[in-house]
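Data availability (excerpt). The following record was deposited with the supplementary files.
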Amino acid sequence: MSETQGTTSGGTATPTVPPPPPRLTGNTAGDLQVLAGWLWDFYRSAILQGFFLNVQNQGQAGGGDDPPPNLPDPAATNLAQAQQTANDAYLLAQAAATDANRIDGWFTGSLTISGGTTTATHTFTDAQKPPSVNYIVLAAAQTFSGTPTIASFPVIRITKNAADFVLEINSAPGSGNSVTFDFLFVRNI
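Predicted structure:
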């Protein structure tokens, strides 16, 4: 488990500080994989685990008790200026909420592989459909049921097609067992 992930006694992930960006080497193929892995770790910590949404983490996330700069002086402000400031703040908050809830071309989901099978397929919706097979899929085992074999957890291949992608593991979980994988699909690269 990386230093950016924590677990509770029940085994669920707790929000922790998002990882710092990786050092790039100039090797495009290797750097792309490292960067994609970092994006997944950052997304999981910041969005899925809610690090930035957790009030206890606001000091670590760049928040704090310092007042924002350029606040209007209440003694020198009239009603029209106060209303305009409130209107501007409202518009900025709406724009920020829209941006915070949308990352174009990024989709998440989960796939479960059970019993004697070694593959699972995610079929794209119309909104997810990529323009080509030049997209990225990151997947990691998150939960399991029963006692699947250890070789059921690592993903060995992701076959990318125009209409879907297929996640493949090395060994089937076995009768009555399953492994669920969370995935991050990045369409726009």
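Summary of structural features: The chain has a mean pLDDT of 78.
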